[in-house]
Amino acid sequence: xxxxxxxxxxxxxxxxxxxxxxxxxxxxxxxxxxxxxxxxxxxxxxxxxxxxxxxxxxxxxxxxxxxxxxxxxxxxxxxxxxxxxxxxxxxxxxxxxxxxxxxxxxxxxxxxxxxxxxxxxxxxxxxxxxxxxxxxxxxxxxxxxxxxxxxxxxxxxxxxxxxxxxxxxxxxxxxxxxxxxxxxxxxxxxxxxxxxxxxxxxxxxxxxxxxxxxxxxxxxxxxxxxxxxxxxxxxxxxxxxxxxxxxxxxx
Amino acid sequence: xxxxxxxxxxxxxxxxxxxxxxxxxxxxxxxxxxxxxxxxxxxxxxxxxxxxxxxxxxxxxxxxxxxx
Lengths: 251, 68
Description:
The structure holds 2 protein chains of 2 kinds.
Chain A lengths: L1 H50 L10 H31 L2 H32 L8 H22 L3 H15 L2 H11 L19 H44 L1
Helix pairs in contact in A: 1-7, 2-3, 2-5, 2-7, 3-4, 3-5, 3-7, 4-5, 4-6
Chain B lengths: L1 H5 L4 H37 L7 H13 L1
């Protein structure tokens, strides 16, 4: 009996050691990261709206690209974070994995939504249509629904460990969609243009347009990390609150 | 200024893109921080004892019961 209580105590310690370290570290990292994100976003908006020249084909609508492309990258990056954390959660049972995966989902969903809507706002004047059911657009819409399904699954199951495992399986099954999105413009005839930054032979975008895009993308990425850390902190505290409430209900 | 705002005739596509990005990102950040604050408050209340009930009064009673 005594041995068992010692075991649970050590397990408890093991489970809380890393989240405690994460809380201390993220507390220190958040202020400078937030500042850096704000600076990059301000510089990115300035470059996008005032410095970048209009494109010779797209005209002023090229400025939509400075929001659309980083959003689309973050939509994919968010899913990779979510699926990666889900995989480590299933394999190593690291206590922070589920927390990270769960925290990434709403941010990823928000950027997927932005990519879809800004894409439509660009598509109407340039393609002559808000939406087409082509491979790239459809696979991005599926990504959005995967995020929503993932969040719904978390919301349905009350016990965090069980919810985390079920959601992780869903995230991993859905990760097949990520390479499909990336290669959709090569595998199928789509209206969407092929990659012009992450391509063999280097970016094919002109310098004055590449700079605002990269600064904006850096700002978006830093913003994503800030939101991820804030949400992870909130999730760790939510679990602590849950444990404290259960302990109080029992004793 | 008017020329800048007109965005070469594409104002109704360019400005909503930036406006929506601002709205969605600000909303996400505000909601995330509000949730963090709420959870922190709840955790502190629970950790500092049984809410309104004073901590000292609860403890000896617990000990008496479990000591039996």
